[in-house]
Structures are given as structure tokens and as C-alpha cells.
Design brief:
This protein has about 100 residues and is mostly helical. It has four helices and no strands. Helices cover about 50% and strands about 0% of the residues.
């Protein structure tokens, strides 16, 4: 999205990304090459999955992740938006 909240202009005809911004999230990820959940990196995808499991397993895990995000990551709570080292750091600190 641009600074006004609008999607970027449509890509040129023939570009498989044309119209991607109106597609559902799963389809956007497939069209854009598997971005999200590690962007095709199996190790990163595993870490993202582990952090999400910690959040879902109990309230303490979710609160620990949120606190980590607020103090260390500018409040960005989506694990797929962080690198592997950051996710591993949280998992090590949390003991997961």
C-alpha cells in the first residue's frame, strides 16, 4: 500500500502479480512467491510456526511474545515479519 492506503498501480499485462492486491491473503502469498511464514526458507518457517505455537499454547506464552515485541521489535507482533535470529532469541529466552 502507498502512503494513502491505496494498492500500488497494476503491473503490466502479462505480469503474474497483476491484480494481486485484490486477492485473498493465501492467494497473494502464492502469487508473490510464498512470502510470509518464512518466505520459502524452511528454517524461518519452522521458527515462525514455533512462535505461533507458543502464543496459542497458553496466555503466558502470548504475553511473553507481546512483551518481547513491544520492548525489542517496535511492537510488530507478526512473527513472519522478523528474521530467524530474532525468533530464535525469543524462543531461547522463553525456553521453548
Amino acid at each position: 500500500l502507498n502512503d494513502r492506503g491505496a494498492p500500488p498501480p497494476m503491473a503490466m499485462v502479462g505480469d503474474k502479480r497483476a491484480g494481486v492486491w485484490g486477492a485473498p491473503p493465501a492467494k497473494r502469498a502464492a502469487i508473490m512467491g510464498g512470502m510470509g511464514m518464512g518466505g520459502g526458507d524452511p528454517q524461518l518457517a519452522d521458527l515462525v510456526s514455533r512462535v505461533k505455537s507458543v502464543q496459542k499454547s497458553d496466555l503466558a506464552g502470548k504475553e511473553a511474545w507481546w512483551s518481547f515485541c513491544d520492548t525489542s521489535l517496535g511492537g510488530v507482533k507478526d512473527p513472519s515479519r522478523h528474521d530467524a535470529a530474532t525468533l530464535q532469541q525469543f524462543l531461547t529466552q522463553y525456553g521453548a
